[in-house]
Amino acid sequence: MITANHLSRQFGRNTAVSNVSFSIGDNQVVGLLGPNGAGKTTIMRMLSGYLEPTTGQVTVNGENLGQNAYCIQRQLGYLPENLPVYPDMMVADYLDYVATIKGISREDRSRAVREALIATEMVDRGVDKIATLSRGQKQRVGVAQAVLGRPHFLILDEPTNGLDPHQTAQMRKLLEQLSRRATILLSTHIMQEVEAVCDRVLILRNGQLALDRDLADLHCSDSLVLRTDKAAELQKLLQGLPQIVNVTANLTDSDCHEFVLQLREGCDRNTAAGNISQCVLQAGARLYTLEPRVRHLEEVFQEVMNNGD
Ligand SMILES: Nc1ncnc2c1ncn2[C@@H]1O[C@H](COP(=O)(O)OP(=O)(O)OP(=O)(O)O)[C@@H](O)[C@H]1O
């Protein structure tokens, strides 16, 4: 488990991160979101031990990172925002060099490099100079150095930055595989990425943690969506139901109309669904679909940002 305890970081008079606390349990994949300058990179640098917090602390499996940085950093894989890769080095040599710094023993090093090259699909570029790689391939070298030695914790700052759609899909597959044996915190600006690979999302706003929620909870809303062919009489019938507090109609010129039905807090959804179906029949209409309204991360992100204004 990796824990941030009341982390804050000042740069002069600028507060980049303010009193942020969270814990990430084993094998969780957590997405860190926030607009530019919200403090994502600063948090990741503190979690990986490359930047000291002004106040607060990071613990990894109960051990204080500040007091035992070298040992703990060996269990961490970190992909920084701007990786200082060495353009004149060959990919495999560079990974061997990073493996040495990480303290991977001489006997295990070539296996670890090969594993990292396979995981990032870079085996056939192993003897190429880093300078000759595309931006996306360099990014994969960055991920390869982070996964060297199968670390328990992976901290990845925008891992799909610069990747084409195919490589992005490959990277998501890789993250899924890695999550079976590692705890992952990744930052991104791509909401679909978080929806595709993460169990949980943290949203930062102005250096503060504005939301910490499991994605499954976040997707649940208090509304149902009804699609039907007739609207006129139905709207009144729906409004009269005790389980419904608000009806929003999206009427069209076609024979498919949509109602968003906001349910009363704590009401029984099955009873509500049964009553809604009866209203549809009573109005002589066809029930095309009746389903829970899913809140997407994009919508929640906007709500969180607007709440801060
Ligand atoms: N080394 C530094 N010196 C001074 N200020 C810094 C430094 N690093 C970050 N900051 C400031 O801290 C704040 C948070 O920056 P940070 O890079 O953590 O944001 P971010 O959420 O990662 O942004 P982005 O999405 O643009 O990468 C910004 O106001 C930034 O200017």
TrEMBL record:
InterPro entries: AAA+_ATPase (IPR003593), ABC_transporter-like_ATP-bd (IPR003439), P-loop_NTPase (IPR027417). GO terms for molecular function: ATP binding; ATP hydrolysis activity. Keywords: ATP-binding, Nucleotide-binding, Transport. The keyword Transport applies. Residues 2-231 form the ABC transporter domain. PANTHER family: ABC TRANSPORTER, ATP-BINDING PROTEIN. Belongs to the ABC transporter superfamily. This is ABC transporter ATP-binding protein.
